[in-house]
Write a structure and sequence with these properties.
Number of strands: 0
Helix content: 55-70%
Strand content: under 5%
Number of helices: 3
Number of domains: 1
Order of helices and strands: HHH
Structural class: mainly alpha
Radius of gyration: 22 Å
């Protein structure tokens, strides 16, 4: 067989985020959960962290990805509880003044 007779190599697969090993949803959920603990403006990081975490659990291919999603959801809920507690504390202190 000569070099002119060889078939061309197959084309590389297009890059997508859905490829195995590229689970960005669990990591995004974890980061949003941490942000919701630190700066929870209008509860946007909390809602996004919970939604992305649920999605990450569904699409997570390995245990570590699902664990990151669960931690993201837990931190987002903790951020929600902390924000609610701060709001209640501020309202209670405003009534006593």
């Amino acid at each position: 067989m000569t070099t002119g007779d060889a078939p061309p190599p197959p084309a590389p697969a297009p890059y997508t985020l859905d490829q195995p090993g590229h689970n960005s949803a669990p990591t995004t959920s974890l980061v949003l959960g941490l942000i919701s603990l630190i700066a929870n403006v209008l509860l946007i990081p909390t809602i996004a962290g919970i939604a992305v975490g649920i999605h990450g659990i569904r699409v997570g291919e390995d245990v570590a990805a699902r664990r990151r999603s669960i931690w993201g959801i837990a931190l987002s809920v903790l951020g929600l509880v902390t924000s609610a507690g701060i709001i209640m504390l501020v309202r209670a202190l405003a009534e006593f003044q």
